[in-house]
Amino acid sequence: MRELAGKVAVVTGGASGIGKAMAAAFVAEGMHVVVADVEDAALDATVAELGVTGVRCDVTSLDDVVRLREAAITAFGAVHLVCLNAGVGGGGPIAESTAADWDWVLGVNLFGVVHGARTFLPGLLAQGEGHVVLTASLAGLMAAPGLGPYNASKYATVAIAETLRAELAGSGVGVSVLCPGWVRTNIFTSGRNRPAELGGWSGPAVPGEVLDAVLAEAMAPAEVARHVVDAVRDGTFWIVTHPEMLGSYEAKVAEVLATRAQRS
Q: Is there a catalytic annotation at residue 155?
């Protein structure tokens, strides 16, 4: 989708972090932008700062996502770019995680993508033009310990993106999967938006000094957003913002490929 000016973008989880940076980048490209978020105060602030349209949306709810699309169509008549970006973090060993932990992380990170794809893709396909960006993570390519629900949700997001890549070929609708490493966002404090009925997070909290050290070296969200804009324009599928962190992925692929020699 080479020409972005005048087109309409929808960004879930768009009131902070990577989502907000993407919204700002799209505004700078002359796009009409609809930002969706579950956090009211952050959403109001983003609308005021960027001059975008804001819609409160809990992506775990299909009805909310349908209303999001309806609001975008009502406001601008079409949707061309959909960034399914809403996400939460969560850690702790799988043996110690609760059903509520899994419900929360998969509800946002996985079903937010599922609901978004089901809701927006028919319209994009009907108009024969558009692009979908799915926010995964390097955790969708290589699984670190202590992040079971999060890893599972991001592996699933990558799988959905790869499936869409094949299914949408030749349709005029492109797809990209965003796999960033460390980025300066609020994902470490995403428990602030966890529904009360699911209780508190069962995993250990990240020590403040560890969090500060990670964020100090992390990529700025605006830089991630620039990668996204380029990928949408160029029709690039993989958006890997931290290629220097792919060593574990390379080792995994080598291990898998080595099984051919073992069986020969």
A: no
